[in-house]
From TrEMBL, chains A, B:
Keywords: CBS domain, Cell membrane, Magnesium, Membrane, Metal-binding, Transmembrane, Transmembrane helix, Transport
Annotated ranges, domain CBS: 196-253
Identification of the protein by name: Magnesium transporter MgtE
Main localization of the protein described in the UniProt heading: membrane
Gene name tied to this protein: mgtE
Upper classification of the organism: Bacteria, Bacillati, Bacillota, Bacilli, Bacillales
Protein family: Belongs to the SLC41A transporter family.
Signal peptide: none
Amino acid sequence: MISIDEMKQLLAQSDPASVIAFVESFQPFDLANCVEKLDPAEQLQLLGLLPPDISAEIVEYLEPVLQYRILNQLEEKQTSLVLNEMSSDVVADMMLAIHRNQAEKLLALLPEDYRRKLQTLMTFPEHTAGSLATIDYIAARSMWTIERTLQHIRKIGHEAEITSYVYVTGNKGELVGVVSLKNIILAEPKTLLSDIVSGDVISVPASMEQEEAAELLSRYDLVALPVIDAKNRLIGVITVDDLIDVIHEEATEDIQKLGGSQPLTGTYFKSSVFHFYRKRIIWLLILFVAETYTGTVLRHYEDTLSEVIALSFFIPLLIGTGGNTGTQTVSTLVRALAVGEVQFRDIFRVIRKEVTTGLMTGATISLIAYIRALILGVESNIGLVVGVTALAIVIWASFVAAVLPLILHKLKADPAVISGPFITTLVDGTGLIIYFTIAKILLGL
Amino acid sequence: MISIDEMKQLLAQSDPASVIAFVESFQPFDLANCVEKLDPAEQLQLLGLLPPDISAEIVEYLEPVLQYRILNQLEEKQTSLVLNEMSSDVVADMMLAIHRNQAEKLLALLPEDYRRKLQTLMTFPEHTAGSLATIDYIAARSMWTIERTLQHIRKIGHEAEITSYVYVTGNKGELVGVVSLKNIILAEPKTLLSDIVSGDVISVPASMEQEEAAELLSRYDLVALPVIDAKNRLIGVITVDDLIDVIHEEATEDIQKLGGSQPLTGTYFKSSVFHFYRKRIIWLLILFVAETYTGTVLRHYEDTLSEVIALSFFIPLLIGTGGNTGTQTVSTLVRALAVGEVQFRDIFRVIRKEVTTGLMTGATISLIAYIRALILGVESNIGLVVGVTALAIVIWASFVAAVLPLILHKLKADPAVISGPFITTLVDGTGLIIYFTIAKILLGL
């Protein structure tokens, strides 16, 4: 960790050389964390005196609003240099987060060509492949020789963010393929790029959902993903670190959905209590209303309950076990669907697997339930009812939790619907019916 | 998708050229899926006639046992070529998955130097950084000139898997830093590597947990992670695709744990029903036994229940809502802890946030609960009991679900303990006590 106090002291001494020397031993990510904790004046002082490429790397990790505040208050020359060094996808995100007029002012500091490309990036909706693309890649024409390509790399290479590959385009800017820097080094100077280009490059349309792009990247073990427009023209390239962020975000969303709430849009502390409320109350209310069905069921069996009050002792236990079984099954399956291990066409294999497992866990639980009922001192025939119900509810929960995620996946419905609390609620009402039906039969009520 | 039938037909025609032409338009991952569906004889025919580098790329995606079967049955010359082209981390995994004698036989086909390095890789336990490392990287000495480094790259570069960076080592093999291929191209031929090496490279010890390595990679936006031994000597390099697999695995494990089961060790269909049973029954039983406590509570309030049987109608509704609230909170927090958004020292901020949210959702639910009770036709004072209990249980569940994950995280206990079903079970028993206490007070029983 970087000592904030040491940083503050060095800044107070106003000795640029020692500040730069201090900064050089740390990573941009950690420096950004440190910058967040400095006073606004110190932030400007630090980012104003560092070389623009280092300032740019640090600023990239800050929140858009802070990025803008700093860039807006630095001297114009430094602002322009830092802005030029920043990743174009980060700059586009910042521009979209600030007011249009503020963005215009900053954009005016950039060369026209770069500005135009940035403005294209800014047109892609959030969560699409296009919104993640950077334009700081190296492109070359397929008719160029290796020699000419190397000259080009030497000329523009120091500004590129994507440094392992050269993207090869045809006459109309269409993506022809990709050549690794390694293969450029291995090739003879007179070779044409078209001779060594690897043509089966995987590219994605700008409109593709970012999670789909992330899935392609993981499946094919790629380190960068070129983004094309409808005419196959290269628009930009997505780097692996942006897709790793997407993978993390998707997992966080899946976990929050499985927990029975709509996903938060920000991180934990950056989301307000009201945001928490809004994301949670909807499902809580839906499930609450659905759960009131249990009241109707119990009221229906009021006479049975009054007759054998001991039956009520086991209600939470039995429906709780059903809910637990359902939650286990649903979380395993929803994840397996998300990573593509299971498809709808596997539905019968899934049912067989889950119900067989339910039969085994149910039988185990059933035995313990029977013993527990006897220990609690209820009559042995009530113990029998509890044991048989435990088995039936576990199997029922396994079946429901196996089938519903697959069907909703097939219907392309929001997977958020199938959460642990959802299955628990569903099993609660139906489980009570199973319980009282078995009780009436076995106790002859 | 690749047509299996077309592949089978082409193989039946025994025309190597047309098979190779057909294969070239597909990705290794998809070809591997196709190979899995061929007959054993066709598998051998296909992988025997393809160029060794393409066969190697395909074989890398197969399961270790199938990898071995194929490598063992190909002609020895082809086996040796394919084995040499395969990623060293994949080869090490395969060697560890097969019998020692089988591994010895295959290892004998490799050059001695490579074999020794592979044997080192094979010593690292599963789930450590060392077990993910590949030795197919390019290393250079810090005293080399750019010219000499380029010669070296031209000599060994075509075998390297890591192609964007050159790892620079000192006299004793210790890791000095890293230079990108781009910077090598940009530098003058006579420059020494020591002059352009970036010294603040992030490396990890071979014994580091793989998830920690994955976290470093995401945090610092890296594309490869060098692995060192206790003496700072470079052992290998982890590529980003292996760490993306780790990120996926960790998320899958977290989801399964939050769902109340121990994580499966394999994918969905590759895990047996008995494996499912073993991973699920432990928590089901623990929770079942814990949940029997609800029976004890209900038995304790048997007189109250007999007196006002209508109270039992709301038991599943009230404890269900508590469980839903707890599950929402716990899933959000466990994920926030996993990705490092929340720490133990934030405990009071977390409690304030969760309890305030609980107050708001609880008040909403409470109102609906009161109305629902009136609609169900119970007396209005029972409606009041239900409304007040709903509020109390939601706040209680928010508090418990906020505190427990943080405490267990602090104690470095297995986070699997805090699952949705766990919180649900905990809230069930305590929720009943809250319910009957409020009922006794408000109804004057």
